[in-house]
Every structure is written in structure tokens, then in C-alpha cells.
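Next comes a concrete protein, fold included:
___
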Amino acid sequence: VPIIKYYKQMGFKLEEMKSFLDGNTYWACEKGFREKIDELKELENEIYLKYTSVKDWYDLVLEAESVIDNNVQEVSVKYLEPTSYCFLDQNFNFNFMESIINIEWTNYIEKINNAITGPVMHSFSSLRERMEKSSKRVRIMQNTILECRECEIMKFGGHMAASCYHIGPHETINEAYEKICQWGEKHGYSLGPQTYERYVTDYWTTRNKDQFVTEIIIPIVRS
């Protein structure tokens, strides 16, 4: 009975235990244990992927709730820790729902045998064009759970940035941009040239646009 209970603790089913109990050979144990290790390793990877996806989304919901509850919409300065994102350059026509819930991006991630987690981010090469709504191209960025090849990632961060949360529809994000521009002029900072939009909560989480939370991130240097 103790042996059976220990096999059960390791995840073996009764029919799998039979060869160990009947054969009583090292070969039977080695083969059975090796197969069980492979099975459990695959299960471990699957659970890690699911846990990471759920935990990251949960953290975004908590972040959005805190921003909304405390009406956090003032400009702040932050250092962006260097990190890497998987990315894809695309045409952009200011259809935010189509660009955030992005079938081309999803297909690309599947093609490179990976999985995404965390918020979708958009990178615009020109702050001016983004504010004028004349941008034609966007770079979609997101964290991946599995390791990417070097050619599939871009470096992000390693510098100071101005950050401002926007609460509400994506169509009114220019309010946050104007706020950052006024702040930069007042405090002697040059902005850009790039800008990043980090979609904390969006169509993935709610259909209520008034509850959308977006973080605008713009690199800064002293003028």
C-alpha cells in the first residue's frame, strides 16, 4: 500500500503501476519514469503558459481599476527598464479595435510557434504624425511567453520617458498627448520623436469605451 500511494503521488494511474509491481525490474521503472517525466514536463509548460496569461491580464485589470478609482491622469517621469518585445510592422488607419484585436498579429505569433501575454502596445515613429492623425504605419508590440529568436524581437526602454494615462475612448487620446506636450514645454523637455501607446484595458476586457485605460509613453531629453 505505501508503494502504491507513492506511485499515486507521482501521478501514475493504477494501470501504469502494474508493470512496476509485476515486473519488478529496473528497465520497467526506467521506461515508465521517463515517460511520466516527459508527460509532466509537457503539463508543466502548459500550466505555466496558462498561469502567465491569466496573471498578466489580472494585473492589467488591477492597474486599470487603480487608475480609474484614483483618476490618475497627470504626467509623470519614469525610467523605462530595457526589455525586449516581439513586434510586427503594419499599415494603420486609426481603426483601433481592428489594430488591437489583430488577426494578422495573432497569425504571426502562431507562425513563429509562440504565445503572447500582457498589453498590446503600438509604436509610432513620429509623435507629430500621431497627433495629427496622419500616421500610416504602426509597429505592434507585445511580450511573448516563450523565448523569441533575435530577428523576432526589438529592444525597448533604457531611457527616460514622460508617461500619462488616458481614461476613455481611443479616439480622444490626443487629450493626453496635448497634456504631455504642455508639460514638456513647461519643464524644458524635448519629446519623441517616437511615441508608444500601451493599452492597459481595451476591447479585450470591456466594450465600455469610457472604461478604457491607455498609457502614453514618450521618450524625453532635456532641451
Q: What stands out?
A: The mean pLDDT is 93. Residues 29 and 35 are 10 Å apart (CA to CA).
